[in-house]
Task: inverse folding
């Protein structure tokens, strides 16, 4: 980077967001939730009769939590949440109670979990909190959308939605997200691209966002070969966005 001072190195956005999922997955409450989900899916898929019963009532299959792909745990919990009605029917059915599995210790534990209101409330809260972050992961991990000018906006929306879904847990989740966001992902280049995105610039009223304007000025100063070129670039941006040039120069 010393040899090529006008080049930017940006980390993989998908990898950084996966690390957010990893860090969140290390929270004690989340670990317990994922552990319970693994216990349920392992029990069901390790016993063909129970699996057939589950498929009868859910009309489908579950996604099983994985050890390595961190976002998969969210997908697995969301899968269980979506199959809630069928799972509850499976483990409260006459077939279940008349089976040999219902009298085993593990069978009773699984039945207690699946009929527990608290268990379902925790899965619901977690999936609602993590759903916005999973959406942005799919966006940055795909090939269709250009994300450089959108990722800052997307992350701001994610934080807002998490706060709306669960204000009590917001600070703990936000601390994890911000640490990865600030230390591993976002750069002046992302903020400048957000500021210059014409749709988002006017939609989100970014005109006088000082943090974004400061990033834009720093990007221009880095990319421009000399002071005159930097001034020309600032004048052009000011003209396009209907800004007073002093707004960018004097921040």
Result:
């Amino acid at each position: 980077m010393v040899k090529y001072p006008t080049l930017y190195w940006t980390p993989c956005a998908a990898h950084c967001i996966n690390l957010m999922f990893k860090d969140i997955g290390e929270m004690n409450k989340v670990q317990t939730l994922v552990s319970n989900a693994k216990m349920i899916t392992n029990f069901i898929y390790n016993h063909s009769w129970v699996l057939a019963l589950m498929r009868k009532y859910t009309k489908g299959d579950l996604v099983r939590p994985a050890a390595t792909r961190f976002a998969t745990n969210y997908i697995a919990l969301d899968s269980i949440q979506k199959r809630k009605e069928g799972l509850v029917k499976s483990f409260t059915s006459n077939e279940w109670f008349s089976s040999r599995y219902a009298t085993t210790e593990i069978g009773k534990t699984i039945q207690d979990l699946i009929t527990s209101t608290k268990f379902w409330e925790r899965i619901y809260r977690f999936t609602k909190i993590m759903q916005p972050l999973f959406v942005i992961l799919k966006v940055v991990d795909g090939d269709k959308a250009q994300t450089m000018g959108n990722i800052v906006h997307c992350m701001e929306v994610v934080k807002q939605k998490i706060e709306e879904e669960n204000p009590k847990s917001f600070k703990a989740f936000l601390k994890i997200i911000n640490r990865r966001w600030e230390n591993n992902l976002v750069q002046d280049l992302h903020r400048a691209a957000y500021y210059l995105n014409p749709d988002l610039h006017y939609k989100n009223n970014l005109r006088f966002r000082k943090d974004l304007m400061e990033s834009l000025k720093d990007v221009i100063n880095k990319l421009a070969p000399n002071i005159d070129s930097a001034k020309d670039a600032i004048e052009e941006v000011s003209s396009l966005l209907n800004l007073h040039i002093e707004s960018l120069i004097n921040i």
About this structure: The mean pLDDT is 86.
